[in-house]
């Protein structure tokens, strides 16, 4: 079972790395809130097409927990991605993905403060090693260069997004025992409802950009893969190994984001990329050796 969770979570973070790159590529082709709303509408319609019988079966539980489910979608889907797509308007993809590396530590802190979930020494060591790999990615192989990184408005937005996704991950412990199809449909609906006023605000401010051809391709990618497939895989990963251990895999996002930049944008692959990936994966392995009960 854990091996399956690892595969789910690695693929999830690969798609999330692509999501950050897509957000940057979207600048000038589709505005952040338009992209965010339409992608969740696409994801909702896709999951609805295959989940109506399951939704009917789970309807009593869905109706009983409707507020929680809509809130999960609003916070984990719309708020996080809204902050991400807005952040890369003002800061670099590197800054955005390195800041996503803060998700695991926030999850650890929230679980400890709210539920007194213990953390082993090996988990702390593993997280620290993984974060060094993340830092190497951010510094392009030169840790001293991190001292020159400055936080701007985009970085602040990304940190708010980190908080949102951490809260979402921890709150998944309260989700009702419904099928993943029903869960995705309900949370995607929450994302849509939360995204509508944000798009209205964007349009009223004169910042809405309707998609061109390339923008439509980005909507298709982000709606079907990062929005739908990755969230399903992430939920399953959290179910299997718990939020603390699953959250640690978020440290792969900056590594994959960098690799995708190499493949899609034509940037050079350097030795520090390989070193960073090794450290991140090694840190995850060490943290897994120190796992206790499901957290």
TrEMBL record:
Regions that span the bilayer: 38-55, 67-87, 93-114, 121-141, 153-171, 183-201, 213-234, 246-265, 271-290
Membrane as UniProt keyword: yes
Domain EamA: 5-137, 153-286
Primary site of residence: membrane
Pfam families the record matches: EamA
Compartments (UniProt record): Cell membrane
SUPFAM superfamilies in UniProt: Multidrug resistance efflux transporter EmrE
Membrane topology: Multi-pass membrane protein
The entry's keywords: Cell membrane, Membrane, Transmembrane, Transmembrane helix
Keyword Zinc-finger applies: no
The protein's name: Drug/metabolite transporter (DMT)-like permease
Organism: Rhizobium paknamense
């Amino acid at each position: 079972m854990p091996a399956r969770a690892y595969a789910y979570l690695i693929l999830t973070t690969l798609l999330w790395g692509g999501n950050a790159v897509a957000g940057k590529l979207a600048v000038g082709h589709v505005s952040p809130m338009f992209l965010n709303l339409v992608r969740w509408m696409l994801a909702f319609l896709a999951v609805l097409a295959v989940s109506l019988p399951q939704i009917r079966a789970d309807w009593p539980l869905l109706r009983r927990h409707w507020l929680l489910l809509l809130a999960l979608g609003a916070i984990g889907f719309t708020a996080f991605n809204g902050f991400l797509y807005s952040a890369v308007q003002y800061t670099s993809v590197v800054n955005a993905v390195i800041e996503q590396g803060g998700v695991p530590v926030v999850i650890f802190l929230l679980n400890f403060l709210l539920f007194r979930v213990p953390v082993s020494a090996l988990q702390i060591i593993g997280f620290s090693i993984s974060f060094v790999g993340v830092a190497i990615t951010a510094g392009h192989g030169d840790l001293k260069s991190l001292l020159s990184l400055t936080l701007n408005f985009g970085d602040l937005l990304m940190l708010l997004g980190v908080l949102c996704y951490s809260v979402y991950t921890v709150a998944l412990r309260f989700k009702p025992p419904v099928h993943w199809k029903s869960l995705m449909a309900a949370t995607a609906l929450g994302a849509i409802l939360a995204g509508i006023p944000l798009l209205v605000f964007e349009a009223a401010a004169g910042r809405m950009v309707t998609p061109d051809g390339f923008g439509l391709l980005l909507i298709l990618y982000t709606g079907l893969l990062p929005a739908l497939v990755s969230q399903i895989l992430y939920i399953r990963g959290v179910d299997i190994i718990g939020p603390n251990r699953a959250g640690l895999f978020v440290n792969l996002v900056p590594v994959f984001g960098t690799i995708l930049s190499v493949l899609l944008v034509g940037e050079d692959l350097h030795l520090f990329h390989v070193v960073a990936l090794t450290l991140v994966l090694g840190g995850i392995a060490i943290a897994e050796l120190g796992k206790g009960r499901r957290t």
